[in-house]
Amino acid sequence: MRVGLFVTCLVDLMRPSVGFAAIELLEAAGCAVYVPPTQTCCGQPGYNSGDRAAARALAEKVLAEFEDCEYLVAPSGSCAGMIKTHYPELFDDAPALRARVERLAARVHELTDFLANVARLARVPGGFRGRITYHDSCSGLRELGVKGQPRALLARMPGLELVEMGDCEQCCGFGGTFSVKFGEISGAIAERKCRAIEASGADAVVLGDLGCMLNIEGRLRRRGNETTKVLHVAEVLAGKSGR
After folding, report:
1. What is the pLDDT of residues 7-41, one digit of tens each?
2. Structural domain contains residue 110
3. Can you state the percent helix, strand and coil of the chain, rounding each to 5?
């Protein structure tokens, strides 16, 4: 099947290894992966800030780039949730475009959901030895129902022990522009999340959104924690986590 990979802005700019790991996993599942060279942003920052015109322009761009793919997959519940959940409302005044967007939205999946429920990845290619805890990122969990999928894939890895932290479903405090507009609140939420991670005794915290990763890792390091790794689930599943 032909799968379009929406790499995401943060992955492209901050941690390209996540994108390459996603490609490796999709190919291991038998997919032909297409990465449009012109792709940029899903439009969520503008959408969350009230700039619907900018968000719509980017939505039209994404539609043109991925419409011919059988599926659109993103290593981010946040970006996948934006496309799947919020794109259609941007075209309430354009029924023909809305219909096309809805057809694309129906084929959008977060990476672990696609691997577990659509491609049904038979064998996880990576290896990891150690104890991890999993943070459920807000958009993936609440908009897309991503919860058991990453855990099911991780459970197939010999030597990996998953321990659940307290309040694993609570926000890390990032929330995109929320962390900029409400810095003190965001910092307090991140502090609570980091305490839960450390209390779990895990060697690494694993998750599915790079925004959450950057926020959690930054807070852990400012707390003086230089040992707990912060890893994207794609890196772990593909064996690109350095363990």
Report:
1. 999 999 999 999 999 999 999 999 999 999 999 99
2. yes
3. 50, 10, 35
State phi, psi for 237 to the nearest 5 degrees.
Answer: -65, -30
> Do both 144 and 206 map to the same domain?
yes
Tens digits of per-residue pLDDT, 98-144?
999 999 999 999 999 999 999 999 899 998 999 999 999 999 999 99
- Domain extent, residue 76, equals 2-118
For 60, other C-beta atoms within 10 Å of its C-beta total 18
Reduced to 3 states (helix: H, G, I; strand: E, B; else coil), residue 240 is: coil
Domain boundary among 64, 93, 118: 118
Number of domains in the chain: 2
Q: For Cα atoms 43, 44, 49, give the angle at the middle one, nearest 5 degrees.
A: 105
Residue (of 18, 5, 1, 11) closest to 241 by Cα position: 18
For 181, other C-beta atoms within 10 Å of its C-beta total 12
Q: Cα–Cα distance between 81 and 208 in angstroms, integer?
A: 12
Judgement on whether residues 79 and 155 belong to the same structural domain of the protein: no
Q: CB neighbours of 28 closer than 8 A, spacing ≥ 6?
A: 121, 123, 125
Give, rounded to a whole angstrom, the gap between the first and last alpha carbons of the chain: 31
- 188 and 141 within one domain: yes
Q: Listing from the earlier edge strand, what are the strands of the sheet with 2-5?
A: 32-34, 2-5, 71-74, 108-110
91 and 97 Cβ atoms separated by less than 8 Å: yes
**Tokens coding 233:** 């689930």
